[in-house]
Amino acid sequence: MMHFENTLAFAQQLDQKDSLKQFRERFCFPTFHEKEIRYFTGNSLGLQPKTVKNYILEELDAWAEYGVEGHFLAKRPWFAYHENLTEMAAKVVGAKSIEVVVTHSLTTNLHLLMVSFYQPKGKRTKILCEAKAFPSDQYALESQVKFHGLDPAEHLIEIAPRTGEQLIHEEDILAAIETHADEIALIMIGGVNYYTGQLFDMEKITKAGHKIGAVVGFDLAHAAGNINLKLHDWGVDFAAWCGYKYLNSSPGGVSGMFVHERHAYKPELPRFAGWWGYDKETRFLMQPGFNPMKGAEGWQLSNAPVLGMAAHLASLEIFEEAGMDRIGQKRDLMTAYMEFVIDSISKQNSERVQFEIITPRDKTKRGAQLSIMAKGQGKALFDALSAEGVVADWREPNVIRIAPAPLYNSFEDCYWFGQLLEKAIQ
Questions:
Q1: Interval 409-426: pLDDT, tens
Q2: Which of 116, 286, 346, 411 is the most buried (most CB within 10 A)?
Q3: Alpha helical stretches, state H, 212-301
Q4: What would the mean pLDDT of 208-230 be, rounded to a whole number?
Q5: What is the mean pLDDT of the chain?
Q6: How far is CA 154 from CA 149, 183, 185, 359, in A?
Q7: Contacts from 167-170 at CB under 8 Å and sequence distance 24+?
Q8: Distance (Å, rounded) from C-alpha 190 to C-alpha 223?
Q9: What are the tens digits of pLDDT across the range 106-125?
Q10: β-bridge mates for residue 58, sequence order
């Protein structure tokens, strides 16, 4: 285990050895603040790759030059634009190309997938999920249950942390699966909890769900581009993720969707269909009766949102070049160093504040995010931190979320975060 030091010289040494350090120059850092920005909110909105502007301008120029014929004459014909993204997106989540498509937005994709994969019948009617999931997931799950004429209070099984604790015990998830074995139709959990940064063992949960005959899906909003995923090998039935957090692909940008290969061609699955999911060889015959494309593409609804996909293409090319293996290695080292820096500041200022990291300490149970509970401090601490140029995230009552993103954050950023955090203590 590496011996860390909370010094500028040590942080700079780590940066010199960093095999991904050149990627920092490929991103635009915000300039709105009078002080140098230290950006740690890749878990909320990733920074803009510098190539995004040119990629979007190419499509605007194609639109100006070709009009509707851009669907076929543009440099990257719009008709099949999403196909430029598929293979690279599949590598990010550990999937086969047939299992992945980029389209729509995250919650839209979750709804479309649950229409197909949440089918309550007989006694098996319930959805097992995490308590206090991200609100959008919570609302989506509640509305899916109501859509089938059921009461969320009775048909959502919510797994919460134990009293006085912040993290969910995975054994509680597995125990609940066993307890409700003949009642669960669907397990749908966030792969990484948005609040604590806790990473769940998706492979183990999937196996436990399949053992009792349930379908298993995940919201990977905080996992895609952050965690080394193996969705195909783990046997996950379905998943969706956004493109704008760790994947750096524009605010509200396009979303990825995964459907396991075993469901590649099941026309009998109920779905809310649209013509872009129709077999592309006969799509323009516009015949009645929906004949889905094989694989995840069959869940598409409408024409590709090309401008959003152009931004996503620019980012995925960076991920392709860097590789998730190297990204994961730096993520673990950088997050461990940031953890050390925060602990050091907490010890040095123990009479005034205690910074408790509520994210798991085990690197196999977290990604890049660290959630810091500032005991004895309120939002004034966060405001003072922001005044120093730190872009982080505040969650009531006293939690600061930060995410040192491997592609554009440096170890020196982590050192300065600690210095500025100490300065901000009230």
A1: 999 999 999 999 999 998
A2: 411
A3: 231-234
A4: 98
A5: 96
A6: 12, 11, 13, 30
A7: 167/196, 167/198, 167/358, 167/360, 168/130, 168/193, 168/198, 168/200, 170/200, 170/201, 170/204, 170/205
A8: 8
A9: 999 999 999 999 999 999 99
A10: none
Torsions phi, psi of 101, nearest 5? -145, 150
3-class DSSP state of 39: strand
As a whole-number percent, the residues of the chain with pLDDT over 70 amount to 100
Say if residue 39's pLDDT is above 80. Answer: yes
- pLDDT of 133 above 90: no
Length of the chain: 426
227 in Cβ contact with 246 (< 8 Å): no
The domains of the chain, with CATH numbers, are 8-49+323-424 (3.90.1150.10), 81-322 (3.40.640.10)
How far is 144 from 116, CA to CA, in rounded Å?
Answer: 11
Threshold 0.90, pTM exceeds: yes
Count the alpha carbons within 13 Å of 389 in the hemisphere toward its beta carbon: 16
Closest CA to 264 of 97, 86, 93, 121: 97
